[in-house]
Automatic annotation (TrEMBL):
Family the entry assigns: Belongs to the binding-protein-dependent transport system permease family. LivHM subfamily.
Keyword Protein biosynthesis recorded: no
Source organism per UniProt: Streptomyces haneummycinicus
Keywords associated with the record: Amino-acid transport, Cell membrane, Membrane, Transmembrane, Transmembrane helix, Transport
Gene Ontology MF terms in the entry: transmembrane transporter activity
GO cellular component: plasma membrane
Cellular localisation: Cell membrane
Protein name: ABC transporter permease
Keyword match Transmembrane: yes
GO biological process: amino acid transport
């Protein structure tokens, strides 16, 4: 999967420098919007406008199968965040990065793993959306 790698690169090149410099939420928001525009524009240049008909099928086509995948993913995320050391570290970094570092948490590693997982989830969501909404050459049509 390419999505987790993109998430790690974005965290290292864009969002980590912002958090090290003080973490002003306005700058992070503007950077997020800029990354979004860059990724959408890059995808349109690379693959063209609209959804592709030759995208790989990663999930079942029926809605119940997709719902099952989403339910298992949500339960897994909930269990990891609530019951593991990594989950505690992730919550600590999100709440107060400096304090988490003072307690011995490797905030950079935790943030990179969080971005990788978030990007994976976004890719999975895109796959679900593509299976739910067929594609045409002019864009996506939901049926």
């Amino acid at each position: 999967m390419v999505a987790p790698g993109i998430g790690v690169v974005l965290e290292r090149c864009v969002f980590r420098p912002l958090s090290v410099r003080g973490g002003d939420p306005t700058r992070t928001l503007v950077a997020s919007i800029g990354v979004f525009v860059l990724l959408v524009g890059g995808a349109a240049l690379l693959w063209g406008q609209g959804a592709r008909d030759d995208a790989p099928v990663l999930l079942p086509a029926e809605p119940w199968g997709q719902l099952a995948v989403v339910a298992v993913l949500a339960a897994g995320v909930g269990a990891v965040v609530r019951r593991t050391r990594f989950g505690r570290e992730l919550r600590a970094v999100v709440d107060d990065r400096r304090l988490a570092v003072l307690t011995g948490v490797d905030a950079d590693r935790v943030a990179a793993a969080g971005w990788a997982f978030g990007s994976f989830t976004a890719g999975l969501t895109g796959s679900c959306w593509r299976r739910t909404c067929g594609s045409t050459r002019t864009g996506c049509r939901c049926s």
